[in-house]
Structure formats: structure tokens, C-alpha cells
Amino acid sequence: MKALGMERAAVGITIVGILAVLILPFLYESWVSRPAARADMRVITLTAIAETGIWTTEEVRGGNYFAKTFAPARPELEVGESVLLRLKSADVIHDFYCPDLGIEPVEVYPGVVEELVFTPDAPGAFDFYCTTVCGQAHFRMRGQFIVRPATSTFEDPGEYWLAEPPEDPSLVERGEWLFKRHACFSCHGEGGHGGVRNANYVKGTVPALDSMASEASLYYPEDIEAIVSALEKEIPLEDLWDDPPVPLFNVVLAKYQAVRELIRSGVPAGKLDQEGPIPPLVMPAWGQVLSDSDIDALIAYLLTLEPQEHVAGTSG
Amino acid sequence: MKTDRNLQGASSSGSTAGPTPSEDSAGGRRIDLLRLLPPLKWFVSRRWFQFAVVFPTLLLFLLFLLAGIFGSPVGNRNIIVVFVWILWWFLLISVMVPFASRVWCTVCPFPFFGEWLQRRSLVAVRAIDPKQRTGEESESGVLIGRNRYFGLNRRWPKALSSIWLQNIGFLALCTFSALLLTRPIVSVMILGFLILLATVLHLIYRHRAFCSYVCPVSGFLSLYAMTSMMEIRSADTDVCAQCGDKGCLAGNDAGWGCAWGIYPSKLDRNNYCGLCMECVKSCPHDNMALNLRPFGSDTQLKGYDEAWKAFIMLALALAYSVIFLGPWGFLKDWANVTESKEVGGFLLYTVILWAGALVVIPGIFALAVWIGRRLAGPHEASAKQVFLGFAYPLVPLGLLVWVAFSLPLLLVNGSYILMVLSDPFGWGWNLFGTANVAWTPVVPQWVPYLQVPLLLVGLAYALKAGWDQATRLFGRQSQALKAFAPVAVVLTVTVLYFFKLYTG
Q1: Torsion over CA of B480, B365, B94 and B176, rounded to 10 degrees?
Q2: Nearest residue in A to B125, CA atom
Q3: Which residues on chain A are in Cβ contact (under 8 Å) with B62?
Q4: N or C: which end of chain B has fewer CB within 10 A?
Q5: Min CA distance, B422 vs chain A (Å)?
Q6: What parts of chain A have a pLDDT lower than 50?
Q7: Is B69 in contact with A63 (Cβ distance < 8 A)?
Q8: Which helix (H) or strand (E) holds A126?
Q9: Looking at this predicted complex, what is its ipTM?
Q10: Of B63, B72, B436, Cβ closest to residue A110
Q11: 3-state secondary structure of B143
Q12: Residues 6+ apart with CB under 8 A from A83
């Protein structure tokens, strides 16, 4: 009888113990570990995923991270509503930044939940960003809070890092591919036409790149062609100083050298309001990613871009 | 005739001829902990002992699985990766095996459900008195010895009665080590599969077939437990010889027959004893001893499967040291295929690893043995005896190499243990206030100074063990010296290469 009693006790302990392990973590998570959540607050959890470059409101777990395609978040809020924002990272260190809603950059470490509270006081579409280069899909890593009513200006560029290189490309074609592969368009706009807003940036929007030829005093197609041809033949433009292939070569060379250095080393974005937030979009230093010949290809491509047509007298 | 090493002394006819203790079990001083520490004896003699030590591990194991599925996908923020592959591995290889033999098998949760089903009990023992059989007992379960078991209880295939399956399984598992270390869900799949497999095999085959022949962890535990400072043995083999009950093997009212199929009187090595302590309970003469003994007391490898396990372990230690501690980043990319996507590199890495472990290192070793035998001149020992004898030094050496490799893993990554202790799922908890401790490597500058002495101790043990084997096999010292010299060179060069890897 004693043995039977002991056996029953062991079975009971086993069942209770297993159930406790299976249930308690979830109870603790629901009831105890979220003290900041209050009934009058809207709780939004954003999890950053570096591999696909998104913030998502879906739950990211060890069991689904490698199998599921998560939807990018576009939370909709109401003016005046208190929001508890919980920020998580599923993989590497990210940096959450939403300047228009007054949210300063928040470092988000994997396994650590960062919580902050804010209240949107005006309708609109408010871009948020990851401001730490977190992986190859980083430049896609933006989203928007939509505070009703609002319209969206950000379009998901898709998986640009998977863009296939062209076969046997010319220098300009390679530059075009690099422009897409490294998501230059995400800040400088499709075709380098610009227009991408950069909060508190001195120029308002990220500079367009479609007028580089004229800025370098290359006004004629044959002049552009001459410079592109020299770059294609891997002739350092500095070597052409004694026998310039185009007029105003000193301007061309200076512009070329300035752009090359800018791409290599990057540059911070100047503030419009010195007391205001840091502009989220900066020119990264690409020197560790792009070779000199890659940079020449990009410059060759940029020289071939043309600004969008504008008919005088229709804009006003 | 090939015999099943796990059924040491337990032939199919049940014959248990007189005790023949080996020189291993007889040599060296022993201190019986069960006599020395009465509370320990009381504890291990309880019917509920095994349940009491396995059940907490089972709950932890389930928590780990849960964390792997529902917790953070980040390896160093998930308890399953940090506790299993950093803490557990270090404790296993550096503490449990050298000091307490296969004590991990005592608490291992893998066979919990399988053994529960097989015995239909967690604590109680089902036994019948053979003198009072009525015939009714045979209606439920299969009678083995005096215990009745549920399930098919088939005999494990003779052809697989070795640790070859464990060798291959462990090598396969280790091929994907980079995934195991970085992706919690992969650990869930592996550990979940093993517990499922253990359960199924318990229902098909008798006793602990999974533990004896399949479990990849059990394979290397069996090898390195030879060095351990603890053993279970019969206290007096004469008592065993005169015992008519043989409850340790056949089971009785007090305990189940040995789940590892071992007759303790013939037990002369630690390799295949899982320290479940059933024999302590079932022995009617209180004749089991849990001995403390000198390090490296078991000195005989008994088959090529065991020798190859030693080669595989050495090859893996070498490969991991090169990949994880070496300066060659591209090798890390090859091993970590899911991050780097370098499938070609991973295939090349796999081929090199498997060829190195199964062919190249054994080949170099066999060449050294062959040269040694030629140098020694005419002798009585067979090629197999010499090969296995000289392979033994790889056991203490391999263990110390693994300790040296594992030490920086713990010292460098130890702070992750504190983090996941407070936040096991990576959900942002802070149970004990340690969730946000900064990652702080512990005395990283001292690591080489700790590794070098460990390697030197390993080499010293290996050379001493090899010399003992040589004198045992060849008799004359001059002949023994010539025979062992090439193997000693291989052992020394191997350790010197580890020196170079660890000290830069």
C-alpha cells in the first residue's frame, strides 16, 4: 500500500509539475511582467527583424523566426491617445527613431524590451526609422504611424538587396544596378529625383542626384560620354589634366573628386533647427562596402541621369 | 565471437560465473562513499531516488524546450542555448565526467517517459517471486528476470551492439554545431527528437537500448567516464559469486534488474554504467560500493568503436578550436551555413571534418602504431591489441583538450548565464535583477595560462598511460620504448598544435 501511495504521489507530482512548467511562464508574462500597461493605454509592440528589414507587430518567437514571413507594421493611432510602445529586436541591435513624434533614438537590444510612452497630438503620417545600419536590408527599415487622418508617402521598396546584377554590363549599367542593390533610391528617390523627406534636415528633403552632370558643367551628351568613357577605361580622371577631354575640366574633376569622397566617407545631415531632432536620414560611408571601381560606376550612372521634365509656368 | 559489451557477464543463458575482477578495477585505492556517507547511502537507496533527481531536470528540460519555441530567436538571450551549450556542456565535460563518471545519466531526462512506460511505474518496482509463480503474472507485460515490463522488449540487434551509431550520431550533430549555438529552434528539434526517439525505443527494445546504443551524448560519456574518479563496483566479488538472488541483474522486490544489462560483479570499467543506483537497492547483501578512485583508473579500450570515438572527439576538439578560436573567419562562415549561405563552403567543411575524424586522424595514428610495431621487432601482441592499447592515451588527453577548449566558452560567455537566469525566454523579464548585466568576459587574458597547464596535464597522462600500455603489451622496456615512441611523437605534436592555437 505504501508503494502504491508513493507511486500515485509521483504520478501526481509529474503531472502537476509538467503543467506548471507549461503554464506558469505564460501566466507570468501576461499578469506580472507588464506593469507599465494600463487600461487607458494603447499597447503596441514593434519587433525589429534585420534579415528582411522590417518592424512588425506580429509576435516573433524562436519557433517561427526562421520559417515565417512577417508583415511590416503600419500602426494606426488616434490623436490624443496614449500609446505604450514596446520595442524588441529579434536579432541584432537596432535603433528606433521617430523624430516627428518627439521620440529620440532608442537602442533596441535583442532580448531587451524597451518601453516608452507618447501621445500624438496631430494627425498625419509619421515616419519611424532604424538608424543603426543593422544589415543588408537596413535601408528598407522604415515604417509609419498613421495618426488619423493621414496619407502615406513611404512606399516599401521590396527586397532590393536581391536585385540580380546584369550580365556583362557597361559601367553605367553596373552603376544603375549598384544604385538599386544598395538602396540609394530609398533616400535619393527613384531615378535619383529626390523628394524624400528628412525631418529637420536643412534642405527639407534628401538631395536629388539627377542634375549631377550639369552641376559638374557637363552640358552636352558628348562631354558626359567622354567622361564616362574615361571611367569605363579605368583611366584616372586626374591623369587627363594635361589633355582635358571636355571644357571646364577643372570643375568636372573637382565635382568628381568631391562626389567620390562623399560616397566613400559619408556625411551627416545638417539640422534645420539646431534645437530640434537629428535628421534620421544620413549619407552613410560606403568606403568599406564599395570598391573604387564601384564608386566610379555609380558616378558614371549618376552623370547619365536627367532631371524630371518641368514646363515653365505650370507650377504656379 | 563478438560479444555485447553492455551485457558484461550477463550471457543469454543467464550464467554468472565466478568473479574475475580486472586489473583496472583492482588497481589503486578506493574509498566507498556509501560507507563513508550514510546519508548518501540512505538517499540513493530510496525507491524514489531516481525520480527525485531526474524530475527537476525534466522540468528544466521542458522549460528549455518551451523557451526555444516561444522565446527569443537570439541564441545568447535564450536559456536553451546558453544553459545547454555553454553551462551544461562545461559542467559535463569539466566537472561531471572527471569527478562523477556518468552522473549525468543519473539525472538525464531523455529516458524519463520511455522508462515510465516500459516499467509502468515511476517509483515502484514490479517483481514476482519465482517460487510463487501462479501463471497469472504472465498476462500483463513481458517478464525479464523477475521484473515485468510493458512494450515489445525485443533484444537490441547484435549487429548494432556497439557505439558506432553513437559515434556517427555525435559527429552528425557536431557538424551542425554552429546552428545549435545560434538558433534555439534547432536545439528544440534535436532535443525533442532525442526524447521522442528514447520513448519509442523503450517501447520496442528492452531496457535502456537508447542510452546504451543510440544517444549521442552517452557515446562520449562512455569513453571519458573511464577517466572518472568515481565508480560503482561490487564491494566483494566473492559475495556476488555466492549470491543466489542476482537481484542486481534479474531484479527483485527491492529493485529493477540493471537497465544497462550489467552484472556488477563483472563490471570492470565505467563505460556502460549509467549510475542509476538500482543495484544499490536490489543487492540483497548490501554489496555495492560507490567508490572514489584515482583519475584514469579504467585503461582498456575493448573495440574499434571505442577507439574511433576517441579519434572523433579529438578531431572535433581540433576542428572547433580552429573554427571558433582561430583567426580564420572564412572557416566560421563555412560552418555557419544558415547565416553565411555558403553551401559550397559548408559541404567542404563537412567533408573535411568527417574525413579528418574517420580517416585522416585514425590513419596517422595507425601509421604511428604500425611504425612502432616494426621498430619493436618480434612480439606477442596482436595488431588490434596494440592499436587499442595505444589508442587509450587519447582518452585522458581528449578529455583535458575538451576541458581546455570549453573553459574560455564559459569564461567569455558566462555573463549570458546571469542574463538568461533572470530572463529565460528573452521576453524582457528580470526575475533576479541580472537580466541587464553587461556582457563581461571573465579574465580573458588568463585563458591561455589556464589552457596550457590543462594541455600539459593531458599530455602527461597520455604519455604515462601509453607507456603503461606499451610495457603491458611488449614486456621488455627497450621494446616498449621503440613501440610507443612514434605514438608519443604524434601525441606530443598534437598537443603542441593545440598550444599554438590557444596561445596564438
Answers
A1: -170
A2: A3
A3: 18, 21-22
A4: N
A5: 11
A6: 150, 310-316
A7: yes
A8: strand A124-130
A9: 0.88
A10: B72
A11: strand
A12: A41, A42, A43, A44, A77, A117, A118, A119, A120
Query: Does the beta-carbon distance from B183 to A66 stay under 8 Å?
Result: yes
Q: Among B395, B452, B59, which residue's Cα sits nearest to residue B225?
A: B395
DSSP bridge partners of A46: A87
Chain A: nearest CA to B489, how far in angstroms? Answer: 46
Q: Where are the beta strands (DSSP E) in B452-499?
A: none
Nearest to A260 by CA among A279, A286, A239, A280: A286
Q: Residue B435 pLDDT > 50, yes or no?
A: yes
A268 and chain B in contact, CB less than 8 A: no
Report DSSP letters for B93-137, one per residue.
Answer: IIIIHHHHTTHHHHH--TTHHHHHHHHT-SS---B--GGG--SGG
Q: Is the pLDDT of residue B109 over 90?
A: yes
Q: What DSSP state is assigned to residue A267?
A: B
Residue appearing with cell numbers 531615378? A191
Q: What cell does B191 get?
A: 532535443
User: Which chain A residue is nearest to residue B416, measuring alpha carbons?
Assistant: A111
B255: helix, strand or coil: strand
Tell whether A36 lies on the interface with B, counting CB pairs under 8 A. Answer: no
> Which numeric CATH code is attached to A33-147?
2.60.40.420
Instruction: Name the packing angle between helices B477-503 and B383-391 (round to 10°).
Output: 40
Comparing CB atoms, the residue among A7, A18, A110 nearest residue B74 is A110
The sign of the dihedral angle between the CA atoms of A59, A61, A64, A67 is positive
Is A162 an 8 Å CB contact of chain B? no
The tally of CA atoms less than 13 A away on the side-chain side of residue A315 is 4
H helical segments located in B377-441: 383-391, 394-422
Say whether pLDDT at B337 is over 90: no
Residue B166: the pLDDT is 97
Which residues from B are below 8 Å from A when comparing CB atoms? Answer: 47-48, 51, 55, 58-59, 62-63, 66-74, 76-78, 80, 121-125, 183-185, 188, 338, 419, 423-429, 435-436
**From CA B75, how far away is CA B278, in angstroms rounded?**
38
Separation CA A258–CA A252 (nearest Å): 10
Instruction: Name residues whose C-beta falls within 8 Å of residue B462's C-beta, 6 or more positions apart in sequence.
Output: B393, B394, B396, B397, B491
In terms of Cβ atoms closer than 10 Å to its own Cβ (0-12, 13-18, 19+), residue B412 is middle
Q: Where in chain A is the domain with CATH 2.60.40.420?
A: 33-147
Residues of A in contact with B72 (CB under 8 A): 61-62, 90, 110-111
Length of chain B as a residue count: 504
- The mean pLDDT value for B45-50 works out to 96
Euclidean distance between CA atoms B71 and B80, whole angstroms: 9
From the list B63, B71, B80, the residue facing A21 with the nearest CB is: B63
Average predicted confidence (pLDDT) for chain A: 87
